[in-house]
Amino acid sequence: MNDNYANVREEQFWFTAAVVAFNTVIINADKARLPVWFLVIASGVISVFGAHLILTRWLAASKRGPTAQNYDNTKASARDRWHYTIA
Prior knowledge:
By secondary structure, this protein is mainly α. It has helices at residues 3-27, 36-62, 78-86. The protein has one domain. It is built from 3 helices and no strands. The radius of gyration is 16 Å and the shape is flat. The relative contact order is 0.11.
């Protein structure tokens, strides 16, 4: 196993732990102070974002991501990053 794979695996663990912790806090939140619809939307947004992070890191590490454009993450514009995310 190379070092990059081990790094991605650790990142995926911490992304997952953060999403689970956030959802645990949301589930235990005081329902009288915050509306339920807000809690559901917040949990959904964080869960989808966490899944996006985990999957894109996995794709990058496994070299399965969209590479037709010679994508360079350090120099990409916001538009390029959006197109990469959609692809």
